[in-house]
Structures are given as structure tokens and as C-alpha cells.
Amino acid sequence: QVQLVESGGGLVQAGGSLRLSCSASRISNSINTMGWYRQAPGRQRELVATITSGGRTNYADSVKGRFTISRDNAKNTVYLQMNSLKPEDTAVYYCNADVVLTGIPYPFWGRGTQVTVSS
User: Fold this and answer.
1) How does pLDDT run across 40-94, given as a tens digit for each residue?
2) For 92-102, what is each residue's pLDDT tens digit?
3) What's the rounded Cα separation, in Å, for the pair 64 and 77?
4) Quick one: residue 73, left, alpha or beta (phi over 0 = left, psi -120 to 50 = alpha)?
5) Going by DSSP bridges, is the β-strand pair 91-101/77-82 parallel, antiparallel, or unpaired?
6) What percent helix, strand, coil does the chain show, rounded to 5?
7) What 3-state class would DSSP assign to 74?
8) Cβ atoms within 10 A of the Cβ of 77, count?
């Protein structure tokens, strides 16, 4: 069973920084796109950033220039460096990975890590 474990969340003041990590374990298959999504109370889950196995990145407009996604393919780990944090970045952040099983990519999700930005 594929497991994704996030870490690095916490409480930070506005303008501060946090770095999230997500490691995928129990994987003997290849991983295509990995990414981060977030969900604030009363809102739908939304895309934050994604990165392909080749390193191509995609960001939500709201985080462009402030957040940076990266990955270490050898470690099956994806990172999210978050700078200049704003109160509106407060949410539970979820890691996502598309794992190829029998030639088809299936999405797997972590349990989430809370990020709280105080004003």
C-alpha cells in the first residue's frame, strides 16, 4: 500500500516561511506528477503547485513568486518552500502523487499537515 507522509507544517507569523516535505513509501513503481493541494475551512480543496518527474512545475496564481515546489526522485520526496506567507495561506496542505500501477497513473493522497499563518 502506497503511503504519503507530510511534515513541516505549523504556526508562523505573516511574512514568515515554512518548508513542507512529503515522502512516498512502499513504492516500487514510478511516480509521475507530485503536488501540493490545500483546503481551508469551508472551502474546496485547491491546487497549490505540481511538479512532473521531469521537473516541469505549475503554480496557482495566488502563490506564484512566493512558493517553490521541488522534488528528489531518488527519495520519492516532494518539497514546498513557502515564503512571504499570508493569513490567507492558512489551510491543511495535502500531498498528492500519481503512481503508475499496471501502466495507469493512480492518485494517492497524504493525510495533510496544518499550516496556520497569523496576522
Assistant:
1) 999 999 999 999 999 999 999 999 999 999 999 989 999 999 999 999 999 999 9
2) 999 999 988 88
3) 21
4) alpha
5) unpaired
6) 5, 60, 35
7) helix
8) 18
